[in-house]
Amino acid sequence: MLPNVAKVSKHVTMIQRSPTYIVKSPFRKTSESLAMKWLPESLGLSVNRWYVIFLGWFNFKASKRFPDYARDMLEKRAWEELKGSMSKDDFKKHFSPKYNPWDQRVCLSPNGDFFEAIRKKEASVVTGQIERFVEDGVLMKDGKRSSLLTSFSTKVSNTRKLYIFSAL
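RE: above sequence
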């Protein structure tokens, strides 16, 4: 959601209570796969579907069996996407969870669009607990303030505008 909102706003801040594993998921068009080039369409689609299912299952099982290795790989891949955009300390604060991969969430970012939004300075991440809402945004428990997006508009059709109000 963040990358799509970032495309139509000046800047987006994602507030999270705890760090999150986020990994770039390479998007490959089904029509470009080897199965689709060499097999009849219905069989190629079936092979592609089972390939994606198997990769997800394998990733989950390997992460549960070797959590330290999985954590290192996830963090390394995310750091490769973000180095130069933030300090290593900021990266660890936002993208180095205390939990093992798949004990809680692992978020996939199609084609790395989440990371791209951060690199382009269209988006940022704030990690911590919210103290309270203030007139111009959010006051975090550590004393930092984050401006709150109250609304923005984008042209949806010739006669309508879409207004999205933030909700936490």
